Amino acid sequence: MGRRVAVVLAGCGVFDGSEIHEASAVLVHLSRGGAEVKIFAPNIEQRDVVNHLKGSPAEEKRNVLVESARLARGNIQDLAELKASEFDAVIFPGGFGVAKNLCSWAVDGKNCTVNEHVNSTLQAFHSAKKPIGLCCISPVLAAKVFPGCEVTVGQDKNVDGRFPDAETASAIAELGCKHICKNVNESHVDKANKIVTTCAFMCKAPLHEIFDGIGTMVQEVLKLA
């Protein structure tokens, strides 16, 4: 029987929601791994809305659950309804929506707050010793909620201009967590906490390398499950 995996989205679109390629990659690799997937998102208003053509703010309001439903093809539930007891693992794709809607990292950095349902979901899976997968900026959720854990967001230096957000690694360390440097096609497994992370679009890399890196994360999550 395939593993039951919950996927948590943060909207639709890299600048104000879930990164679409990352969400798709997670779902493709889960499908290939024979997992049974259900998708969730918090039923809250987005912190902001970005015109992705112009890269500028849009004067409108959008709902995270409603926007995430675009990626889920309508088959989605309110995150408040997620029960860790019904799943073997949970995965969070990245995108600025994670740092804006699932927590306030985009504004407050390491001093951010985490959405109550995101926090309770992470705590429930962790307490049940069930694996948690995170990619791109999503590992900051684990860093904030689980001090002392190990995660990767790629490199801690902007190597060859490929890691423009390398300072995130320093912020993670300031939270009392250990940042593990990894390449885009790799993931890191914190065996003690069953947390699996990969950098995805935190690295400027060809799409297929990002896709493959997410694949290693998903594979490790399924192994731990």
Automatic annotation (TrEMBL):
<dbReference type="InterPro" id="IPR029062">
    <property type="entry name" value="Class_I_gatase-like"/>
</dbReference>
<protein>
    <submittedName>
        <fullName>GAL3A protein</fullName>
    </submittedName>
</protein>
